[in-house]
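FW: tagging you since you asked about this chain on Friday. Here's the raw sequence from the shared folder, copied in full. Didn't touch anything.
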Amino acid sequence: IDVDGIEPKVIAGAQKTLANPGLRTVVVELEGGEEGTRNTIALFAQKGFTLRSVGEGRNHLFVR
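HL: got it, structure written out here
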């Protein structure tokens, strides 16, 4: 997910999709402050995802 700064809004609107157990991985480019990044990581954790890695360009790989 790379939507130039509105990732939290897109993720918040994707709750049904994130709850789908068939979804195994998500890559999100997280820009902005530490608090927003922590909140997004917590939201993914609530849906059963673990932060696997942070790559180039602040791409965060979440896996279930």
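FW: The radius of gyration is 11 Å.
HL: agreed, and The longest helix spans residues 34-46.
FW: great, closing this out.
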